[in-house]
Design goal:
The protein is α+β, with helices and mostly antiparallel strands. The chain contains seven helices and five strands. It has a five-stranded mixed sheet with strand order 1-5-4-3-2.
């Protein structure tokens, strides 16, 4: 009887451990906690995904907003920095590509304190030069990055312009070219280009 009881306990313990009740979960990566990415069937969907990726700190969704050579073998993403940033960081921006874009964004969000997200405002925006496979979006922006790094700016403002194109094979839209310019009249002097330069290394 004692042997039978002991066997029951052994089988019970084996069943308990095999079902994974006491196993630990692998931690999620910092950019997979939340995602509201939608298929970019329209140019405006790209803007929605772009804003959400920044607020949600999702580097994969952020990268998906931009043209990749996987989608277009004959075209590439380009970034044109604000003139003041280019004067200071010419060598950095001369070779800027999609990998730099994603790596820098990940660097930015990794420097934010836990529970803190970027704040992004897009105002005075408009779509123009609308064609079946291309559109241009322009907007004033203000982005706040509340990092804890001494000596670096936390507020950035300016005007961005996205030239977006549609991939005929899947009908999805992507940002092919991002042009950044200084604000015409704002108390914030640093542009998004300066933000990228600060965290590019």
């Amino acid at each position: 009887m004692m042997i039978r009881t002991n066997l029951y306990y052994i089988f019970f313990l084996i069943a308990l451990t095999s079902c994974g009740l006491f196993s630990t979960r692998d931690p999620e990566s910092p950019d997979s906690d939340k995602s509201t990415y939608i298929p970019p069937n329209k140019a405006v969907d790209v803007i929605t995904n772009f804003k959400n990726a920044i607020i949600e700190k999702n580097s994969e969704n952020y990268k998906s907003c931009f043209l990749d050579t996987i989608n277009f073998s004959d075209k590439r993403y380009t970034f044109v920095p604000s003139p003041d940033a280019y004067a200071l960081y010419q060598s950095l921006f001369d070779n800027w590509d999609l990998d730099d874009e994603k790596r820098t964004f990940y660097s930015i969000i990794s420097k934010l304190p836990e529970g803190t997200s970027p704040q992004l405002e897009l105002t005075n925006y408009d779509f123009f030069d609308q064609q079946p496979n291309s559109e241009t979006y322009i907007s004033d922006y203000k982005i706040i990055i509340r990092h804890n790094i001494q000596g670096l700016d936390t507020a950035f403002a300016g005007t961005l312009q996205f030239m977006m194109i549609r991939n005929p094979s899947n009908s999805y839209w992507y940002i092919q070219k991002w042009t950044d310019t200084n604000p015409s009249n704002d108390t914030i002097n640093a542009t998004w280009s300066i933000l990228k330069a600060q965290f590019a290394n």
